[in-house]
Amino acid sequence: MKEIKFYNETLGRHISFDEVIEELINYVDYKPEEEYKITVGTDSLGSNNTHFVTAIAILRIGNGGKYFWTRSEKTFCPTLRDRIYKETLKSITMTQELKSRLRERMGEDVFWPARNASHSDAGGDDKITVHIDVGRKGATRDFVESVVGMVKGYGLEAVIKPEAFGAFVLADRHV
């Protein structure tokens, strides 16, 4: 994966993806008895030439969380469909890399069910979810089934608006 720099307001500086992994692990290690979820979401401005912002958030269920974000170079997106598909693919790619790195460092069973355990009906486990900036209402409603299908096709769980805060709240703050 190309070296991407992430930002976190609490740290007040840019960090590498490896440092994001360390921050996530340290966050879990501080209170290992708690339950955690991770979200990955991407958002962009509604223009033909736009930046994509991807946010990675870790939630300590019932007790806050923290997030990191990165912004891409400007990319040409002539249509809303093109932009939504690119946002979704960026989130899928980031989620796959994140799961792989966390699995290497923390082991198979920390965030993921045992190999033979069944995934949720949504298409994947729900410990790391992909938040997509689409919803059943508005201009993106026609894309919901296709982008949710993309995410499920990678064995990941998709979350759409209004629950997809990783995309339309966290990432959107930095677009």
Features:
4 helices; 175 residues; globular; two-stranded antiparallel ribbon; 9 strands; Nucleotidyltransferase, domain 5; alpha/beta
Structure description:
The chain is an alpha/beta fold. It has a single domain (5-174), classed as 2-Layer Sandwich (Nucleotidyltransferase, domain 5). The protein is built from four helices and nine strands; from the N terminus they run E-E-H-E-E-E-E-E-H-E-H-E-H. The protein has helices at 17-30, 80-106, 144-153, 165-171; strands spanning 5-8, 13-16, 36-44, 49-50, 52-60, 65-71, 75-76, 128-131, 157-159. It is globular. The two termini are 22 Å apart.
What is the CATH domain class? Alpha Beta
User: Unreliable segments (pLDDT under 50, ≥5 consecutive)?
Assistant: 112-124
Number of helices: 4
User: Whole-Å distance between the termini?
Assistant: 22 Å
Q: Which radius of gyration do the C-alpha atoms yield?
A: 16 Å
Helix content: 25-40%
**Beta strand %:** 25-35%
Question: How many separate domains?
Answer: 1
For the record, the CATH architecture stands as: 2-Layer Sandwich
For this structure, the quaternary state is single chain
Average residue-wise pLDDT: 90
Shape: globular
What is the ordering of alpha helices and beta strands?
EEHEEEEEHEHEH
**What is the CATH topology?**
Nucleotidyltransferase, domain 5
Structure summary, number of beta strands: 9
| Strand line-up in the sheet with most strands | 6-5-3-8-9
Main β-sheet description = 5 strands, mixed
